[in-house]
Design brief:
The protein is built from five helices and five strands, in the order H-H-H-H-E-E-E-E-E-H. It is α+β, with helices and mostly antiparallel strands.
Length: 188
């Protein structure tokens, strides 16, 4: 009897700890309306909420996050689509291209790696490295990492495309949420 009570207590404490840890760190109150109905409407319109009646009425399946739903990931792949990929690991958050050379100079080639530091579309979300390989007759090859205009241009293009994709996603997920006619919460 004592073991069962101890087991139930430890399960309860574990569930409570998980519940408390799942709470967010808070939000900036200036960005959210004080009225609960307006907050609900804003969240649903932006695709952050869910509608219970749609779930109850028999919609089957679940919602899954695929790489195609991450705007930064899609924008990165679209930006470097002319270079063959050596590795693309969505769960690891990294894209690595193969060595690429245009036909003008076969003794020089580049390799790009893009590491995702966050899913948010911002300037410090990506760690892009560009490696240059210069070979003398495909024998003595020298590989160097270079920072410069190509890294800045890639970052700019990826962020620009990701912002466009994010806006398209928000527009696609926008669903108006009707407020009660009075605009206030109904009294019980």
């Amino acid at each position: 009897m004592l073991k069962i009570r101890h087991f139930k207590t430890s399960i309860l404490i574990t569930l409570l700890a998980i519940y408390l840890n799942s709470c967010g760190s808070g939000a900036d109150a200036r960005k959210f309306p004080p009225n609960p109905e307006e907050r609900v409407q804003k969240n649903i319109e932006e695709g952050r909420g869910f509608r219970l009646m749609n779930k109850v009425r028999g919609s089957k399946g679940g919602d899954f996050e695929f790489a195609s739903s991450n705007e930064l990931w899609r924008a990165s792949l679209d930006t470097i689509d002319f270079i063959p990929l050596a590795s693309a690991n969505y769960s690891g958050g990294i894209i690595i291209t193969d060595w690429y050379s245009d036909n003008s100079n076969l003794n020089e080639s580049i390799k790009i790696s893009i590491r995702f530091l966050t899913n948010e579309i911002r300037s410090d979300a990506l760690d892009i490295k560009v490696f240059y390989k210069k070979c003398a007759q495909n024998i003595n090859c020298e590989i160097n990492e270079r920072k410069g205009s190509l890294v800045a241009e890639l970052t700019k293009q990826i962020l620009k495309k990701a912002a466009i994709y994010e806006k398209q996603t928000k527009d696609k997920n926008f669903k108006p949420y009707p407020l009660p006619k009075s605009g206030k919460r109904k009294k019980k």
